[in-house]
Amino acid sequence: MNYFKKLFGTKEKPPVYVVSGLPRSGTSMMMKMLEAGGLSLLIDEIREADGDNPKGYFEFERVKQLDKGDTAWVAEAVGKVVKVISALLKYLPSDYQYKVVFVRRNMDEILASQRKMLVNRGEDSDKMDDDQMAGLFEKHLAATEKWLQAQDNFQVLYVHYSDILTDPMTQAQRINTFLGGQFDALAMAGQVDPELYRNRNEG
After folding, report:
1. Which residues, 6+ apart, have CB-to-CB distance to 36 below 8 Å?
2. Is the pLDDT of residue 50 over 60?
3. Does the predicted model carry a pTM greater than 0.85?
4. Number of H helices and number of E strands within the chain?
5. pLDDT above 50: residue 190
6. CB under 8 Å, gap of 24 or more: what pairs does 188-196 form?
7. Rounded distance, CA 168 to CA 173, Å?
8. Alpha-carbon distance 51 to 60, whole Å?
9. Which domains does the chain have, with CATH numbers?
10. pLDDT, tens digit, for every residue of 3-29?
11. Which helix (DSSP H) or strand (DSSP E) does residue 158 occupy?
């Protein structure tokens, strides 16, 4: 089969580009970077920008139904980038190729950001036990990384939120190389706004 592909120049369909990570880890910023770099986004703008994400959430609502079997939309995502939180990655259909930019962030910053979001929504932030949540998140991340390593149809680049904000050009070049090198790393880096680095870990 590979011989005939080479002989006739049959092209593989492009991958689905995915931005992933825990909630409040910087995935919306990454989506904006990739859009500036030249990727088309699969978004629906149902969730509007607010004080927690003033530049927008860049979400596609049907992603949230992956665990309920709604996967038909993935065909629309081929060659585009879509945001999928880490807990839903395992529900993506196996008959596609994926390139995942996985954003990591210091756990105390994630928890502080989530707590602030609860306050902004008028919800009780004291219901969230930081130590318990941190333990659950760390366990989830370890299991997700192990699962991703075992998937032949997933390629993953891990990037750190603080690294992006302190050296956006270096990280944009890493991302561009991972995605195939055909995108605009300078434009990606130009989207990084250090003013949005709230809930910074000063320790």
Report:
1. 184, 187, 188, 190, 191
2. no
3. no
4. 7, 4
5. yes
6. 188/33, 188/34, 188/36, 188/37, 189/33, 190/36, 191/29, 191/32, 191/33, 191/36, 192/29, 192/33, 192/164, 192/165, 192/168, 193/29, 193/55, 194/165, 196/29, 196/54, 196/55
7. 9
8. 20
9. 13-190 (3.40.50.300)
10. 444 455 445 789 999 999 998 889 999
11. strand 154-160
Tokens found for residue 162: 């603080």
Place of tokens 């011989």: 3
Inter-CA distances, 158 with 21, 27, 101, 200, Å: 9, 12, 6, 20
**Rounded CA separation 196/60 (Å):** 23
Half-sphere exposure of 105 (CA within 13 A, CB side): 27
Please tell me the number of Cα atoms within 13 Å of 47 on its side-chain side: 17
Q: Which two tokens stand for residue 6?
A: 């080479």
Contact 83, 19 (CB under 8 A): yes
Output the DSSP codes for 18-78: EEEESTTSSHHHHHHHHHHHTPPB-----S---SSSTT-----GGGGGGGGT--GGGGGGT
